């Protein structure tokens, strides 16, 4: 018997690791591009100022990079340690992107990071610049493959269930890689990293200006970061738009939860906050049609038919068909050697109902609804802070270009205080993506409770608190080291 | 004709290769284990940290890729061993996690715990990581307590396929002396490789002399455990698989495997000679610094041979002592033919990856690290 406490702690441990990992990764993604742009300017102009500017941000990058790696390795192995059933049930598809990530991206990052950091005196200028860009590209490629893997969990494609091996098996590699959810997710996540890096650089640079130090360095950094950040944020919005359409198509329950939409319909409104709505806006966002049909939570649970005539079963019907699928699987296993005819029939029944296999593990319709309040507010934090930060970067860039930034102390304070907001927006985005898809580890096919390892609750609790302590310690040390390094400053202007 | 069976063998070969490269790259751990033993002064310790510190990410990446490749090619191992021997893998991960941050944090102002604490983390990882990994690999020959029942998926209340048969969750591996001896062998090998690497990579006569002393001690300990493990391995019962996939115990199974696969025998012999020559010549000739480049290919060959002994020639590479028929073989635990084929195409990039790593390695390590360099250049 799988204990619900085990499911809860396993889920919490993974969420903890992923949440911490995403504190460090976006800064790596964004800062890598910013410092690569700075070094490119140095190589093009030969101006040592840009080299020293890039080197300062590289120092910050390196402090952050190490903790990202530390949390990342735990994440990879937790698929096995805490979700062993998952590892077998879909390892045939899910393992491949992880291996490719290692072969293509991690080696690139590891090799070129060392050259970037220690190679200034050992390799030529252009060679070094290429290494910095390859570090940035390696980071982005690594994001690509892990997001391909994640997107497959949200929208499983390119596979068939094999009852003989008791797992899903890949039948179309390119369908997995080019999963539309993966493409949107990749751009959304990577560009949100650009946004994080930019807000970070702008905020720190504004702090220098507020303190009246490192003026030239700060203004130059703001210029580069704001441009990277604005491009990044606009791209986040574009990819977010296509993510919304895909959510409506593939994970309507997640969208309904994100909107707190109990009863859907045509021309659905978008809720800004409870009680304040924009008419028809949700339909526009979800379907790109002012009168598009968007189902609500109750519609999904009760079953509904789209205006195009597409029938969606009720929760109870899906659960029933899921149980039929699991039973047919069991019958197939029992009869495949002794009674091939019976096995053939069972297999047919299994295939007819396979789409609902995961629902067979669900006990009640309530289980199928993710925590609505958390997802609803996380969505608002993500979109609200994201939009505000875009506005902030545009104003900062305008003020910097007009030479007014240093007179607008409120703006510099706002930029500095925005640093935690960009992290909150990023975390909120992942809460929408991951909490919003509960109870599924693989949408419709495997709920979290059927995916966990058979480990004692005490063991998972122990490792959970151990990781809380370790990651928090690392975060505290990282922040303290960064603050010290920032206070010490790049000393670029005086040289 | 590339058959499913060929692809399974090919992927086991790649796992063996990655395993070999990983053990070679454990020179980083071996070097760190010597921080306080061979490094007597602050400058010497700084040289050690900066020597291994320029390569640690490669070791780390190889470990991650090793895990990823195992997941992609033999997912039943991933789910059975990681989800079962929970504590062993968690401990290994924790030591690596502390290592990952320690390089960057140790010399930075504001690091809260102080320089020596982070160096202690590096040292602990240096000893424990190879010891634990070695102990875990030891169970490839002695077996572990687990049951695999794929039909459990139909049990709605308890659908877990792989279950560990005791509450020790992998810690029981230390109760078998062979596993511990295997772990100690890998640990001393890492120390030998670490000393050899730093003798080549650091240009400092005093430290060099101290490293050579530790090389002698560690090499002697390694040889002792190597001979012990080899003796036991070649005389122990092994987990054989018949044509129907039935697992049974066979006397002298690993000796039989060695004799049945002459290529593997040659790999072991050539590898062992290279390791012995690498360490031996460095010990005997004070001016010789390139021992690592003999020991490195030797290590890769021997470790690959160990994996081949465990998995090839109808052998269960991850045996179950609780239920013999639950044992994992490269046939019953691999990914589908389609996935192995797709991943085999992807694996064609590996020589290119190895080539660019080698090229940049050469670029970065053309000159050995000196104390002068640490005063002028970027450092940890």
Topology:
The complex is a heterodimer of chains A (495) and B (380).
Chain A: H1 4-45, H2 48-81, H3 84-89, H4 91-118, H5 125-154, E1 159-162, E2 167-170, H6 173-177, H7 180-210, H8 215-250, H9 252-259, E3 265-266, E4 270-273, E5 276-278, H10 281-287, E6 293-294, H11 297-302, E7 304-305, E8 311-312, H12 315-335, H13 340-353, H14 372-401, H15 409-435, E9 440-442, E10 446-447, H16 457-488
Antiparallel strand pairs in A: 1-2, 3-6, 4-5, 7-8, 9-10
Chain B: H1 4-25, H2 27-33, H3 35-38, H4 42-52, H5 56-73, H6 75-84, H7 86-106, H8 115-142, E1 146-148, E2 162-164, H9 177-201, H10 205-235, E3 238-241, E4 247-250, H11 253-260, H12 262-284, H13 292-311, H14 337-347, H15 350-365, H16 371-376
Antiparallel strand pairs in B: 1-2, 3-4
Helix pairs in contact in B: 1-5, 1-13, 1-14, 2-8, 2-9, 5-6, 6-7, 7-8, 8-9, 9-10, 9-13, 10-12, 12-13
Provide a short characterization of the protein structure.
The complex is a heterodimer of chains A (495) and B (380). Chain A has 495 residues and is mainly alpha-helical. In chain A, 72% of the residues lie in helices and 6% in strands.
Describe the 3D structure:
- The complex is a heterodimer of chains A (495) and B (380).
- Chain A is built from 16 helices and 10 strands.
- Chain A has helices at residues 4-45, 48-81, 84-89, 91-118, 125-154, 173-177, 180-210, 215-250, 252-259, 281-287, 297-302, 315-335, 340-353, 372-401, 409-435, 457-488; strands spanning 159-162, 167-170, 265-266, 270-273, 276-278, 293-294, 304-305, 311-312, 440-442, 446-447.
- Chain A has a two-stranded antiparallel sheet with strand order 1-2. In chain A, strands 3-6 form a two-stranded antiparallel ribbon. In chain A, strands 4-5 form a two-stranded antiparallel sheet.
- In chain A, helix 1 runs parallel beside helix 16 and helix 7 packs antiparallel against helix 15 (409-435).
- Chain A starts with a helix and ends in a 7-residue tail after the last helix.
- Chain B is mostly helical and 380 residues long.
- Chain B has one domain.
- Chain B contains 16 helices and 4 strands.
- The model of chain B has no long low-confidence stretch (mean pLDDT 95).
- The chains are: A mainly alpha (495), B mainly alpha (380).
- Chains A and B meet through helix 2, helix 3, helix 4, strand 2 and helix 12 of A and helix 5, helix 6, helix 7, strand 2 and helix 14 of B.
């Amino acid at each position: 018997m799988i204990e619900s406490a085990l499911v809860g702690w396993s889920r919490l441990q993974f969420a903890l690791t992923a949440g911490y990992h995403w504190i460090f990764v976006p800064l790596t993604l964004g800062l890598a591009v910013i410092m690569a742009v700075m070094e490119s300017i140095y190589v093009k102009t030969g101006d040592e100022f840009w080299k020293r500017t890039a080197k300062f941000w590289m120092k910050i990058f390196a402090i952050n990079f190490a903790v990202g790696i530390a949390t990342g390795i735990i994440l990879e192995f937790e698929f096995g340690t805490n979700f062993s059933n998952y590892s077998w049930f879909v390892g045939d598809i899910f393992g491949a992107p992880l291996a490719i990530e290692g072969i293509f991206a991690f080696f690139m990052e590891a090799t070129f990071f060392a050259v970037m950091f220690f190679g200034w005196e050992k390799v030529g200028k252009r060679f070094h610049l290429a290494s910095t860009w390859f570090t940035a590209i390696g980071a982005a490629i690594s994001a690509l493959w892990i997001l391909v893997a994640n997107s497959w969990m949200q929208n499983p494609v390119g596979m068939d269930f094999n009852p003989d091996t008791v797992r899903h098996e890949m039948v179309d590699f390119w369908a997995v890689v080019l999963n539309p959810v993966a493409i949107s997710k990749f751009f959304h996540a990577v560009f949100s990293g650009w946004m994080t890096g930019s807000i970070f650089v702008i905020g720190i640079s504004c702090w220098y200006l507020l303190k009246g130090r490192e003026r030239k360095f700060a203004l130059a950094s703001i210029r580069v970061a704001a441009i990277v950040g604005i491009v990044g944020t606009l791209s986040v919005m574009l990819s977010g738009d296509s993510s919304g359409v895909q959510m409506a198509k593939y994970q309507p329950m997640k969208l309904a939860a994100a909107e707190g939409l109990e009863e859907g319909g045509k021309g659905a409104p978008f809720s800004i906050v409870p009680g304040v709505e924009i008419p028809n806006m949700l339909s526009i966002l979800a379907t790109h049609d002012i009168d598009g049909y968007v189902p609500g939570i109750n519609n999904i649970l009760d079953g509904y038919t789209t205006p195009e005539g597409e029938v969606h079963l009720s929760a109870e019907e899906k659960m029933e068909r899921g149980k039929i699928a699991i039973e047919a699987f069991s019958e197939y296993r029992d009869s495949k050697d002794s009674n091939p005819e019976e096995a053939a029939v069972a297999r047919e029944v299994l295939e007819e109902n396979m789409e609902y296999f995961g629902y067979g593990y669900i006990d009640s319709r309530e289980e199928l609804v993710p925590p609505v309040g958390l997802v609803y507010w996380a969505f608002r934090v993500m979109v609200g802070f994201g939009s505000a930060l875009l506005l902030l970067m545009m104003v900062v860039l305008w003020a910097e270009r007009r030479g007014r930034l240093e007179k607008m102390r409120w703006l510099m304070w706002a930029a500095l205080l925005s640093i935690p907001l960009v992290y909150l927006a990023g975390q909120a985005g992942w809460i929408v993506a991951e909490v919003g898809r509960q109870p599924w580890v693989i949408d419709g096919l495997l709920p979290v409770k059927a995916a966990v390892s058979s480990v004692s609750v005490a063991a998972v609790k122990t490792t959970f608190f151990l990781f809380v302590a370790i990651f928090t310690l690392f975060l505290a040390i990282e922040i303290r080291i960064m603050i010290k390094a920032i206070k010490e400053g790049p000393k670029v202007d005086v040289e | 004709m590339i058959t499913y069976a060929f692809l399974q063998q090919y992927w086991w070969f790649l796992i063996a290769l990655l395993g070999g490269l990983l053990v070679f790259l454990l020179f980083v751990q071996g070097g760190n284990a010597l921080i306080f033993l061979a490094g007597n002064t602050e400058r010497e310790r700084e040289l050690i940290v900066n020597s291994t510190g320029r390569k640690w990410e490669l070791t780390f990446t190889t470990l991650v890729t090793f895990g990823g490749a195992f997941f992609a090619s033999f997912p039943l191992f991933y789910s059975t061993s990681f989800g079962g021997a929970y504590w062993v893998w968690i401990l290994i991960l924790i030591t690596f996690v502390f290592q990952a941050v320690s390089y960057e944090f140790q010399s930075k102002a504001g690091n809260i715990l102080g320089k020596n604490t982070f160096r202690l983390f590096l040292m602990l990882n240096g000893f424990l990581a190879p010891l634990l990994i070695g102990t875990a690999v030891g169970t490839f020959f002695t077996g572990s307590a687990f049951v695999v029942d794929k039909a459990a998926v139909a049990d709605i209340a308890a659908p877990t396929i792989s279950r560990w048969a005791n509450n020790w969750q992998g810690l029981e591996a230390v109760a078998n002396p062979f596993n511990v001896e295997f772990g100690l062998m890998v640990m001393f090998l890492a120390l030998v490789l670490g000393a050899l690497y730093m003798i080549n990579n650091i240009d400092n006569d005093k430290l060099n002399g101290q490293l050579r002393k530790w090389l002698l001690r560690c090499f002697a300990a390694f040889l002792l455990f190597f001979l012990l493990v080899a003796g036991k391995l070649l005389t122990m019962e092994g987990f054989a698989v018949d044509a129907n996939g039935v697992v049974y115990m066979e006397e002298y199974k690993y000796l039989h495997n060695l004799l049945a696969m002459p290529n593997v025998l040659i790999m072991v012999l050539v590898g062992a000679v290279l390791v012995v020559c690498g360490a031996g010549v460095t010990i005997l000739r004070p001016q010789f610094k390139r021992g690592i480049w003999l020991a490195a290919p030797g290590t890769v060959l021997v470790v690959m041979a160990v994996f081949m002994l465990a998995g090839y020639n109808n052998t269960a590479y991850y045996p179950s002592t609780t239920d013999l028929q639950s044992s994992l073989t490269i046939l019953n635990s691999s990914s589908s033919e389609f996935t192995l084929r797709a991943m085999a195409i992807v694996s064609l990039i590996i020589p290119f990856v190895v080539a660019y790593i080698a090229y940049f390695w050469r670029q970065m390590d053309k000159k050995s690290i000196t104390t002068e360099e640490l005063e002028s250049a970027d450092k940890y």
